Amino acid sequence: MTTLLRRVAGPRCSSWRCLDAILRESHSRTTNLLSRDGARTLTGASRPLTGYSRGYIRGQHTEAADPVEVDLKRLEGGDDGIVEVLMCRHKARNALGHVFVSQMRELMSTLSHDSTVRVVVFRSLVPKVFCAGADLKERALMNNTESDLFVHGLRSLMTQIASLPVPTIAAMDGVALGGGLELALACDLRTAAYSAQMGLIETTRGLLPGAGGSQRLPRMVGITLAKELIFTGKRVGGQTALEMGLVNRAVEQNQTGDAAYGEALSLAREILPQAPIALRMAKEAMNRGVEVDITSAMAIERMCYARVIPTRDRQEGMAAFIEKRPPRYTGE
Question: Of these residues, 179, 199, 317, 331, which one is catalytic?
Fold first, then answer.
């Protein structure tokens, strides 16, 4: 990807030819969305992704004895199309250990190929915790090489999350520290309770953010503020996070401890009625465009726009506007 983008900016490359190569993968994903067969199942699975899918996860792991630390739930009825990723490693506060990371990686691979998914919400089932970050007990048993390889895998997981083709939302109802905040940063949108505490605290442990935090945070809040937060290892609450642009919405915590999740669900419901292919292409255009110069970014936008022109959803959107009725998008 980086090589292709460099070629776009270079004098020897036709920008259209290079940009077409850049977006070829996106076109493949869009084709999958266009060729829906009506099956409402997880890709590669024989059972529907309805309710909790613990059995599916267990069946996919080579070690059947692994506890379920990350789960999936598909919402139904009017919320059909919203999928929740449930983090449920209760004893270790959702710490990013081997099993947790392995299960999350499998689920991300599944979701990336499921054309029925329209919005993904990441939430925790552990009270007062989103994700506590690295599993320091596991990390203490690793030698230098093993530690480096594990963090590389963790960085790859965050890239998987960031690369999901549909909008993603992190609901932070509690602590999100280190790798936990990096997971939230890999999502498109974030909600938080005022009582939540979040921060990239790695420098207080003799480290630096190694799963994308040192790159995603500056892009989100600006380089100066990001340096302050990382250099000091400072933790901030939901209200402060909202003011600095770290989260999209912040709310007062409720008695059940899931106010941020409620706000994330409300946000997902605002996204849900929009045209699925248009959403995917909009995300593609923004994610790729922000990494290149403005001229190349405009060309990327044009290429993404070209993908939606032949869709039935575009025709439906125009017809609904003329007929003054809500559109009924099908992702085709």
Answer: 179
Residue 127 has phi, psi (to 5 degrees) of -55, 135
The CA distance from 47 to 172, in Å, is: 30
Token pair 């991300």: residue: 108
Beta carbons of 209 and 217 less than 8 angstroms apart:
yes
Told to judge if 10 belongs to the known catalytic residues of this protein, a careful annotator would answer: no
Question: Does 146 qualify as catalytic in the annotation?
Answer: no
Residue in 177, 186, 195 with CA at minimum distance from that of residue 242: 195
Q: Catalytic: 193?
A: no
Report in angstroms the alpha-carbon separations of 74 from 7, 86, 116, 187, 309: 41, 11, 10, 18, 30
Axis crossing angle, helix 294-308 with helix 276-289, rounded to the nearest 10: 170
* Catalytic residue selected from 92, 132, 134, 250: 134
Partners of 123 in the beta sheet? 86
Question: Is residue 51 among the annotated active site residues?
Answer: no
Of these residues, 84, 182, 263, 284, which one is catalytic? 182
How many alpha carbons lie under 13 Å from residue 267 in its C-beta half-sphere?
A: 25
Number of neighbouring beta carbons within 10 Å of residue 53: 24
Give the whole-angstrom CA distance, residue 251 versus residue 242.
Answer: 10
Series of mean pLDDT values for 10-residue runs along the chain (332 residues) = 41 45 48 41 37 46 71 96 96 94 96 95 97 90 93 96 97 97 98 97 94 96 97 97 97 96 98 96 96 96 96 93 93 88
Q: Which two tokens stand for residue 114?
A: 């499921």
Q: How far apart are CA 265 and CA 243, in angstroms?
A: 21
